[in-house]
Amino acid sequence: MTIFIGVITTAIFLGSLILIFTEKLHRSITAIAAAVLMVVFGRVFGFYSEQAALEAIDFNTLGLLLGMMTLVAMLEPTGFFEYLAVLAARSSKGKPMRLFVLLGVITTVLSMFLPNVTTIVLIAPITILISEILGVSTVPYLVAEALLSNTGGVATLIGDPPNLLIGSAAGFSFNDFLIYSLPIVLISWAGALILLRYLFRKELSRRPKNVEAVMQLNPTESLNDPRTARRVLIVLGGAILFFFLHHALQISPAFVAMSAAAMALVLVRPDLEEMLRKIEWSVLIFFGALFIMIGGIEAAGVLETATRLIERVSSIPPVLFGIAVIWIVAGLSAVVDNVPITIALIPVIQRLGASGMDVTPLWWALAFGAGFGGNGTIVGSTVNIVVAELSQRTRTPITSEIWNKRGLPVMLVTCAIASVMYAVFYQLF
Amino acid sequence: MKISSCMKRNVVSIPITETILEAAKIIVKKHIGLLPVVNEAGNPVGVIGLGDLLTLELPDFVNFLPDVDFVHDFGAVEDTRPPAKALNQTVETLMLPPITVDEDSGLLRTYALMLQHHLHDIPVVSREGKLVGISSRVDIGVAILSTWQKAD
Fold it and tell me: Judging by DSSP bridges, how do beta strands B121-125 and B131-136 pair with one another?
């Protein structure tokens, strides 16, 4: 009977992974169906109750996402993102290499504190505008923005959904990420930028003809609503300050984000219906449903079997084990969404920890692998898919082939840098 | 009043087998906004609008951005031309399904139809489905307004 339950729950999990990967069905619909199936079988065979399913949902992750999404939804119509990109375009004086670095830096910093996908959705159209005006290919800028935001997002607790999940499961604070992840990410990010400048050297050496047109863009004009922008940015700044302190104050990041969202709502008083439409509900649903599904697998005891298998091979030195985790997770994240992978591995690592192993370094290995792996292919992360889809509507579409020549080397280099630093500083984790 | 009283009867149309470039040539030569596409029997099977042709040249960032008010100069975009490959495709690839009215349709009914479908011009067909005329918002609007003066 236990084997039968194990087979069924594994089949539901693998089946939904395949559907998510092949995009035969919207991933949120897949996740809801899988979550419901899991609870149905759980009730029939008595291994998973409705109560347990609800408890499996990590409301800290959902609350943090919802809070940050609300802030961005209020910031978006103010034209703040256009303002930043136009500022970058003007300070670059139309020099492609400088524009490339400036847009990369802006996207990275934004994606360290705001949801990556939202950042890209807002910055990519204005990037397309600037490069179309200049008359240069949009490919280097869009690809670099996606790769650098994926890389930079690993640095903070709120930068990347896998980090939220890992932070929540391992009890890492915002500052833990700044201490343990940020230094490694900074060096890997710099490596990625240098590599990208080299890989795109041909496109970026061409001198654009229409520099004057770009210099006529006026940043202040693109900022439609400076009052609202200022208010939301002040609240956002306050939220980031409280993220630094959340551990000391014993409040959850979700509480900080939701409080900030509430404060901004009161200050800005936007058209609520319109603002709510900008929230990516499908992402929240996807996460909630995934938590329920993974909770079912855990309750069925499938992960226990998996953990026992890992324990058998974990006789290898822990440093090598950690590096192996980086590369295996990165390889998986390159082809499948890194969120389900992270959610699936979290209980495995928790069980390894319960069996007496020091798993703190493993959590970081998981974060690096999940974050950097997404760069490997055009479907590796949602951000990649977004820029690729947007570029289909320009004269220079990003193909899978282009991605394999730029993204894959970036993934390999960042993982290599992370592995070396991981090994060198292993004792500090 | 019927639509047949305020339509242009010498309608220019294009056979479905012609290219997009040819459609553009006709639109330029006749200075018109809408070109009905007809099959061999002369029945309208689609329409090519001036706007549909322009979307081939208009960059998509205009649709992505909430507004382009702050962009004073489109720079290199002004000089872009649609690729020859796109222009040499048949009109069938670009045309939209035709929204037509019967020649005995009323003026207000036709105007309401045009408003709802965001049309500036509307082809008029006979009972047999043959293209017999074309009418614009201005043609219809002026015809409706002229009845006000008669009432005085």
Answer: antiparallel
Q: Does B57 touch chain A (CB under 8 A)?
A: no
Candidates A81, A103, A80, A105; CA nearest to A92 is A103
Predicted-complex ipTM score: 0.71
Contact residues of A toward B, CB < 8 A: 77, 79, 82, 86, 124-126, 128-129, 132-136, 208-210, 212-214, 216-218, 221-222, 224, 390, 393-395
DSSP 8-class letter at A251: -
Residue A157, CA distances (Å) to A165, A315, A326 in order: 9, 31, 18
A410-to-A387, B50, B53 alpha-carbon distances in Å: 17, 45, 41
What is the model's pTM? 0.84
Listed by number, the residues of chain B in 8-37 with a beta carbon closer than 8 Å to a beta carbon of chain A are: none
CATH number for B37: 3.10.580.10
Of A132, A136, A221, the CB nearest to B70: A221
Instruction: Identify the CA nearest to A111 among candidates A101, A100, A122.
Output: A122
pLDDT in tens, B114-140: 999 999 999 999 998 899 999 999 999
Name the residue range of residue B82's domain. 3-151
Query: What total of structural domains would you count in chain B?
Result: 1
Q: Which residue has the tokens 């855990």?
A: A298
Give the C-alpha separation, A184 to B129, whole Å.
71
